[in-house]
């Protein structure tokens, strides 16, 4: 098998057949057991840590508009349609409503008369672009390596984020197009991560390494919500996009300087660690060729199971990610700082729980307590059914802010368990095509990201948000169970 740039260029037909069998049968067990190389200061855990901060930046770039929207939108205009059904459901924490047209706020930042429908469209715009690059990004990352695509995706999104205040000033259409382009750039990041771990993660450390890196998303949301609120109140909402964009550009510099696509080409990796990774992964870590077993994938029951589970999980997750600050503002009537801090709590829990789930999953595999398939199913089930039940409960909390926030926090926290289940399952069933498979599953999983904020924006006109949440989360529970 010829090697180039640290990974295989031409795949072995027999190995392709083995991976096709995995796609069809889902018979997933670690192939080779090697004596583990030290974890402390290792190249693979350094990569996981850098990915962690990268995805923290990625989610900061993704959610900053959700909180900033509260400061960007003229309050009275936004609430005129909501007040018909939601304005008197719960007592207001404060009543500082003002003008009904575009005005400058106290910090001099402009305010815009965007209706709930317009806000929903703007919050969903990101996912229109995000849909487009998932599959191409996964394919190219699997073919050529994920370093350039992950780093380039973050850098491009960060650079575009710097233009957000200008786009908002130019008009809704410009801002919609800009957010869609940001999604276009960010769409390659998760498939590229999966393609990189196919070359870097020993089978018995996959859960840990991938949940550490992926947990950056929850950590990023946890940090971005309160920090965005503080920045909006102290520096004005435009500063949010300048600071987040600058952070993304700075991270990209470290990424391109420190990261290699493959352990074989890493200049600072120790020889024992390199041998451990290469021998543990074997030929599974090689790049795929130009051809892809699309027919086998199309009829793969495990792959369709991952797609369905990811769509169900993401529907609730993206609804909260994009609309939770609006819910806190229009229904529970928290001010901007309270809103941003309380919106962050669920993601603190998800961050911690996802990392712990990864450690627990690898522990079960190392001790051979159960198979890879059983571990993934258990963590997926826990991460879908229990959160759905807590989300249903939110609709019945009436105006109890404490109960609502508690249920939302528990739901998102327990949902972190699926990070050790369905969200890393692609690398188990076909490591060589892991990036491409994640592109497929994430494409379907992004559809809720497009639809949910738009649905919230339109439904909020005619029904109470409490009633909408009950209907929304009941349907989630029915689909999952």
From TrEMBL:
CC terms in the record's Gene Ontology section: apical plasma membrane; basolateral plasma membrane; lysosomal membrane; synaptic vesicle membrane
GO molecular function, a single term: symporter activity
Keywords of this entry: Cell membrane, Cytoplasmic vesicle, Glycoprotein, Lysosome, Membrane, Symport, Synapse, Transmembrane, Transmembrane helix, Transport
Membrane topology: Multi-pass membrane protein
Annotated protein name in UniProt: Sialin
Subcellular locations according to the entry: Basolateral cell membrane; Cytoplasmic vesicle, Secretory vesicle membrane; Cytoplasmic vesicle, Secretory vesicle, Synaptic vesicle membrane; Lysosome membrane
Catalytic activity annotation: L-aspartate(out) = L-aspartate(in); D-glucuronate(out) + H(+)(out) = D-glucuronate(in) + H(+)(in); N-acetylneuraminate(in) + H(+)(in) = N-acetylneuraminate(out) + H(+)(out); L-glutamate(out) = L-glutamate(in)
Transmembrane segments: 47-73, 121-141, 148-168, 174-197, 209-227, 239-259, 341-365, 377-396, 402-424, 436-460
Gene: LOC114770198
Signal peptide: none
Domain of life assignment: Eukaryota
